[in-house]
Each structure stands twice: as C-alpha cells, then as structure tokens.
C-alpha cells in the first residue's frame, strides 16, 4: 500500500504539470519567442522561474547531505540571499540591452558588450560545460526520488533509469514549447517545491524538536567553521564566495532577466525571491543540523531528506517529500536543457557559419531542439553510471562557471576592459581551474583551502585587469561603449515588451 501512495502522489503531480503545459501551448513566432518567451512575464512568474532554476532538487539531497555529514561548513545561506540582489542590480542594463538588441542568451550580451564573436563562442562553450554536470545531478536527483519512493523495492540504478526515462518524456514539452512552457510550468513547480517544501521542512523540524533534537546536542566540532589553525582555513570562505559570484553567471538563470515584461518586473521578482529563499534554505539547513546526531542520517547523509520525512510521517509525508524534490529537479533540468540548446544554436553554430550569413529563425529553432535532445540523452546516459560524491560534481560545475564572472560583471557594471582581456581571462581561468580540480577536488592545500575555481579566479582577474590597463581602447571603441551604456541610461522602462524583434546589434567580428 505504501508504494501505491508514494508513486500515486508523484504521478498526480506529473499529470498536473502535463495538463498545464498542454492547455498553455502557444506556437512560437520566432527564435526570440522560443528562447525568451516574448519578454512577457510578470514578477511572480519570474521569481518562481528563478528559484526553480537556482535551487534545484539536489539542494534536498547533496546540500542537505553535506550539512548533515559535515556540519556548519556546508551552510551557504549568504550567497543564496545575495543572488536576488545581484539580479536587481543587473536588471536595468541587461533587460534594456536585451530588448533593444534582441538578445537571447548570456553570450549574446557578452558579444555585444565586447564586440567579439570569439567571446560569444567561448562563453557559450563554458556555459554548456558548466551546466552539464547540473543536468546529470538533476537526473541523479530523480533517481534518488524514485529509489526513496519505492520503499526499497527498486535498487538505485533501476531508480535512476526510471527517473531519467520520466524526465526524458517531460523534455518533449520543453523541446516543443521552449522558454514559455518552462516559465509557465515553473510557477506551479515552484509553489510545490518551495511552498509545500517549506511547510514540510517546518514539520520535520517540529518533529525533531519534539523528539529532543537541538543544536546543543550537536558536537562542537560540527558547529565550527574552518579558520586559523585548521588545515584549510579558507575553505568556508571559498565555498561561500563561489556560489555568490556564480549566481547570475549560470546561463539558464541569466536568461530569466530577458523573460520579464519590463525592468520593474525583473526587480519585483528579486524582491519576491529574497524572502522565499531565506525562509526555505534557512529551514532546510537548520533541519539538517538538527539531524546530525541521528544514526540513520549519519549512515546515508545524501538520503537524509527522505529518511527524516519517512520517519516523521510515513508514506504520505515521504510522497510529498519526493514530489517536492521532483518539482525542483524538473524545473532546473528544463532550464538547463533549454539554455544549453539555445546557446549551441545561437552562439556556436550560428557564429561559426563560414558564409557569415545569419541562420534563419526556423533553422535556429530546429538546431536548438536537436541540441536539446542530444544533451538530454547524453546526460541521461551519464547519470546511469556510478559517479563520485554529488557535492563534488556540483562543486566542479561552480569552478567552471565562476570563470565567466570577471568579464560578465566588469562588462555590465563598468566600461573597463577589452575583448582581449575577456578572452584571455576566461581561457586562463578555465585551464587553471580544470587542472587544480583534478588534483584537489575540494580545497587546494597550499592555498589554505581555497577551491580550484577560486585560485583560478585570482589569475582570471589579474589577466583581465592587466589587459585593460596595457591595451587601451580605440576612440571608436570608446564611442561604441558610450552609445551602448547610454541606451540603458536613457531607455529605462520606455522600451516596451512588444518592441519589434530583430534589431541588429553592433558588429561582433573579433
């Protein structure tokens, strides 16, 4: 009877998502509609889409597992809280440039800012490489859901295969509907993941407290953060800095800024995100800390969420817990697949055309859909293989993506820097981060525990700043940047969501 309850609740949720998608289907007029949904959504839609991308299902598994297994060092609430602030500060220029120049992806904006086709290609490849591990993690999270909901009837490999199969079916709507379908379903999925999820977290905390759990019972060593006198005193600093800098580097998150109906919608969404993220993640981390002393949690930290909910409320609470993880995973996988496909079509294939002619709208959509299908099946295959610690896989993705942060943030917030510095900084950062990550997957001992990506970031910034100082801009480049930044300063909310798409951007020939 228990397995009927657990899988029945999950099936009902999945059916509701499919029904919502079927009823809301609208054919995309062009590639801009497919990638940014016509820049038509309000603040709450955007907030749920942002959270459904930024807080994937793996936060219930790898994040809770890391805290439950290692203690306070795994808590990263600061970076989660500051991400909406970064979105708020970016809103003006990113949305206005996106609407004015029909930008569809993050590399689109970087190519516009630095007037470089090479930057478009490099940023797109880094973006796809950084997103792919999260795609695999999402698939693995689905496997964890099906394994837990089966109440021991399915082994983990079979559960992953089943979860991957279900998610592959779900991608039919993502490939067909593009960004519009993702944002619409994210509203429902976000309410389930972070609304219902928060209620479940509070219920489990109350149950743990009633059973005598408290922070006073947690071993002091688990409450301490690495600092002076420890082998890796800067590890916690690095684990906090990476997610903060990466917050809007993720291409699937960045494109959320384009989908809003205006600057006010984007800023309003950041105001919604902050309190929701605070309540949800604070509760999740607190729950994991309270569970530190439980033998069943210590035996399998990555399964702590399912272990606790089953113990607290039986199959019904477990069913809701699994559905919450499924909802969060689905939104993140959808966004990852769509963003990766759009970048491959728009920023790699189109940019590499030898004849220099733009791809047709239809060709862009078809190329993106083919790429999305290939990425889905590739991630599904890898997800079924034995993998190292889920936390290590997630950290590797951060090490890659943070290398985009230097040219991205300098490029949006200042006029300092040039295309040569942007290209060299990203490539040098990726090379160093990849090498160090292979040697030291978590912290680099000779760098006092800084992660590989953080060490590489130091070189990244140095290269970018040095190039900016040693290679001054030409008069023509200064004039181009003046005009570009003036667009954001003058346009404000004057650019309407129904502005005709297709206005060409400044040249990108480097």
Automatic annotation (TrEMBL):
One of its GO terms (molecular function) is symporter activity. One of its GO terms (cellular component) is plasma membrane. Pfam families: SSF (PF00474). PROSITE patterns: NA_SOLUT_SYMP_3. It comes from Inquilinus limosus. It catalyses: L-proline(in) + Na(+)(in) = L-proline(out) + Na(+)(out). This is Sodium:solute symporter. It is found in: Cell membrane. Belongs to the sodium:solute symporter (SSF) (TC 2.A.21) family.
């Amino acid at each position: 009877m228990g397995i009927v309850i657990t899988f029945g609740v999950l099936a009902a949720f999945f059916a509701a998502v499919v029904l919502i998608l079927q009823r809301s289907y609208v054919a995309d007029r062009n590639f801009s509609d497919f990638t940014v949904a016509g820049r038509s959504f309000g603040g709450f839609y955007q907030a749920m889409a942002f959270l459904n991308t930024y807080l994937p299902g793996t936060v219930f598994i790898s994040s809770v597992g890391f805290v439950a297994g290692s203690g306070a060092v795994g808590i990263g609430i600061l970076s989660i809280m500051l991400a909406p602030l970064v979105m708020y500060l970016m809103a003006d220029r990113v949305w206005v440039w996106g609407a004015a120049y029909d930008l569809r992806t993050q590399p689109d904006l970087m190519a516009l800012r630095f007037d470089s086709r090479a930057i478009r290609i490099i940023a797109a490849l880094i973006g796809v490489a950084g997103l792919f591990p999260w795609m695999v993690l999402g698939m693995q999270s689905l496997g964890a859901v099906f394994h837990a909901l089966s109440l021991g009837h399915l082994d983990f490999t079979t559960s992953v295969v089943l979860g991957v199969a279900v998610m592959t079916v779900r991608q039919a709507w993502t490939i067909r509907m593009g960004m519009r379908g993702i944002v619409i379903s994210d509203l429902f999925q976000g309410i389930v993941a972070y609304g219902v999820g928060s209620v479940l977290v509070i219920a489990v905390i109350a149950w743990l407290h009633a059973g005598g759990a408290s922070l006073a019972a947690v071993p002091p060593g688990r409450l301490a953060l690495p600092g002076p006198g420890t082998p890796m005193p800067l590890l916690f600093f690095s684990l906090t800095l990476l997610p903060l800098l990466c917050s809007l580097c993720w291409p699937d998150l960045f494109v959320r800024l384009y989908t809003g109906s205006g600057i006010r919608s984007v800023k309003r969404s950041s105001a919604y995100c902050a309190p929701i993220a605070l309540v949800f993640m604070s509760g999740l981390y607190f729950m994991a800390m309270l569970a530190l002393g439980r033998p069943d949690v210590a035996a399998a930290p990555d399964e702590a969420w399912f272990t606790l909910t089953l113990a607290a409320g039986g199959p019904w609470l477990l069913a809701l817990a699994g559905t919450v993880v499924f909802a969060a995973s689905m939104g993140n996988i959808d966004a990852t697949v769509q963003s990766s496909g759009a970048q491959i079509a728009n920023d790699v294939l189109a940019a590499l055309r030898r004849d220099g002619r733009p791809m047709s709208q239809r060709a862009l959509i078809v190329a993106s859909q083919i790429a999305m299908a290939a990425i889905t099946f590739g991630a599904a295959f890898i997800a079924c293989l034995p993998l190292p610690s889920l936390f290590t896989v997630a950290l590797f993705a951060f090490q890659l993506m943070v290398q985009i942060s230097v040219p991205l943030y300098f490029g949006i917030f200042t006029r300092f820097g040039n295309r040569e510095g942007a290209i060299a900084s990203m490539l040098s950062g990726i090379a160093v981060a990849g090498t160090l990550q292979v040697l030291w997957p978590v912290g680099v001992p000779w760098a006092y525990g800084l992660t590989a990506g953080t060490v590489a970031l130091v070189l990244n910034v140095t290269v970018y700043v040095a190039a900016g100082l040693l290679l001054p801009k030409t008069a023509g480049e200064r004039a181009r940047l003046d005009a570009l930044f003036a667009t954001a300063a003058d346009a404000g909310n004057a650019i309407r969501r129904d502005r005709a798409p297709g206005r060409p951007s400044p040249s990108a020939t480097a």
